[in-house]
Design goal:
Elements: H1 4-18, E1 45-51, H2 58-72, E2 80-86, H3 91-100, E3 107-109, H4 114-120, H5 128-137, H6 141-145, H7 147-152, E4 154-155, E5 158-159, E6 162-168, E7 170-174, H8 175-180, H9 190-203, E8 208-212, H10 217-230, H11 247-261, H12 274-283, E9 286-291, E10 305-308, E11 321-330, H13 337-349, H14 353-356, E12 363-364, H15 367-373, H16 377-387, E13 392-394, H17 405-412, H18 417-423, H19 428-445
Parallel strand pairs: 1-2, 1-3, 8-9, 11-13
Antiparallel strand pairs: 3-11, 4-5, 6-11, 6-12, 7-9, 7-10
Helix pairs in contact: 1-3, 18-19
């Protein structure tokens, strides 16, 4: 089976070979070199490409942050910082094409699998000098982030990413609709959840009881992770064997099918985007949605939207909660490795504006930053219930950290294909068997 990565690589090889003026390979350096007193913005340029972690305001916040970084005159080198926002619907092609054609930015912030992908390609800039500088300075960042998160972003002895946030999904409900349907207790199991949906459907036949984004594999992967881990299921075993044929996974898929067949899940869910379901929640067109941090909740709805606790499947004592580390990384193609490291260190330490003005929907790893940027009680509650909980695990559980093949699986939406088939009315059980074969081939092709 020809993989997406191989296809894209073939497409851009000619561009890469024809590229003029290739950037010199960058090494590593310590940060904070002696200032050379170049005027702000008159020195080398460092570029940052970020995906949209917020909403309509995110690009403006990025531009403002870049200007702040330029005006800061980091290390007195006059570094000019420039940013571009990359759309999620084509981020994979955008970054891969740029890397292979030697036109990559200096710094990137994208999907959580990006760090390992480009490190495996030999394109990562080692970020250990930033970590070493924090240790030397006695920075609280080291302890706040925690060694486990730094280890997660370590590959072949190099620090390939700086983890700055945890990202995940949770369940949110409309309090007024629940009260109107006589629902006084929130469900803790999927059986109880279906009882709630039955009451909602009986009281409000025009309201979708439960909605989530199913229009693309990226969104559907998050949905699949929540359902799967709520029943202790996983895509892989810790020995890297496909695990979708397990009893726990087929059991949770059966529960989803029952909810769909009974009309508890919106019939048009496979066409819903993330924006669709958030709008539906804000307007009362749906009672429960599964999505990311509630920075999307309208001001006048803050008291009307509630955070639901994780719901568990029949095969576990408590549900596992799926989350993901998000990280900045950098490319060794940069012409200015020292300046790139200096800018990334500053950017990491001073990115509050991307939350307060940009609406970043991820939750900062550092507790001190959470306190500063999470002013909404609703967001704080979501963070405590879904991301700060002891039973919150990376979404590749029980695998300890990313392998390079996770990038291929992520880009192709491999794990979500059975759920997509179910919602499309196809034979999802046959799809499970096909996907397990695909996973085995992906892992074998990657040399594991």
């Amino acid at each position: 089976m020809k993989k997406l990565f191989a296809l894209l690589l073939a497409q851009v090889m000619v561009l890469g070979m024809a590229s003029c003026g290739e950037k010199a390979g960058g090494g590593t350096s310590s940060t904070g070199n002696a200032a050379s007193n170049v005027a702000a913005g008159e020195g080398p340029t460092v570029t940052i490409w970020e995906c949209n972690w917020g909403g309509d305001a995110y690009e403006g916040a990025l531009k403002k942050q870049a200007q702040r970084a330029t005006d800061e005159n980091i290390d007195g080198k006059g570094i000019k910082v420039e940013t571009s926002m990359v759309a999620w619907d084509n981020y994979y092609d955008t970054f891969l094409t740029a890397v292979v054609s030697k036109t990559a930015p200096d710094i990137a912030c994208e999907a959580s699998t990006g760090c390992i992908q480009y490190a495996d390609m030999g394109e990562a800039l080692d970020l250990m000098p930033i970590y070493d500088a924090w240790v030397a300075e006695g920075s609280p960042i080291v302890d706040e982030v925690g060694q486990a998160a730094f280890d997660f972003e370590t590959f072949n002895g190099e620090l390939i990413g700086l983890p700055f946030s945890k990202d995940g999904t949770g369940l949110f409900y409309n309090k007024e609709l629940f009260e109107g349907a006589g629902i006084t207790e929130l469900p803790t199991t999927w059986d109880e959840f279906m009882e709630v949906c039955d009451k909602l459907l009986a009281k409000y036949p025009e309201v979708v009881p439960f909605a989530f984004a199913g229009s693309d594999f990226a969104s559907l992967t998050n949905v699949n992770d929540l359902f799967m881990m709520s029943n202790g299921a996983s895509i892989l075993t810790k020995d890297l064997e496909p695990n979708l044929q397990s009893d726990k996974y087929t059991e949770i898929m059966g529960i989803i099918k029952e909810m769909y067949d009974k009309g508890y899940i919106g019939r048009a869910v496979i066409s819903y985007t993330g924006d669709d379901i958030k709008r539906m929640m804000n307007t009362g067109e749906t009672a429960v949605i599964l999505t990311n941090a509630p920075t999307w909740v309208a001001e006048d709805m803050q008291d009307k939207i509630g955070v639901m606790n994780p719901v568990k499947g029949p095969s576990v004592e408590e549900p596992y909660i799926a989350s993901a580390f998000q990280a900045y990384h950098a490319f060794n193609q940069t012409e200015n490795p020292e300046e790139t490291l200096a800018v990334l260190k500053w950017w990491y330490e001073n990115n509050d504006i991307l939350y307060t003005e940009g609406g970043n929907g991820c939750i900062p790893i550092r507790a001190s930053q959470q306190e500063k940027v999470m002013t909404s009680e609703l967001v704080r509650e979501y963070a405590n219930v879904w991301l700060n909980a002891e039973n919150s695990y990376p979404n590749i559980y029980p695998v300890q950290s990313f392998y390079p093949f996770h990038t291929t699986m992520d880009a192709e939406g491999t794990g979500a294909k059975p759920l997509n088939a179910l919602l499309a009315g196809d034979d999802y059980q046959a799809t499970i068997d096909q996907v397990c074969d695909e996973i085995s081939e992906i892992i074998e092709d990657a040399g594991y």
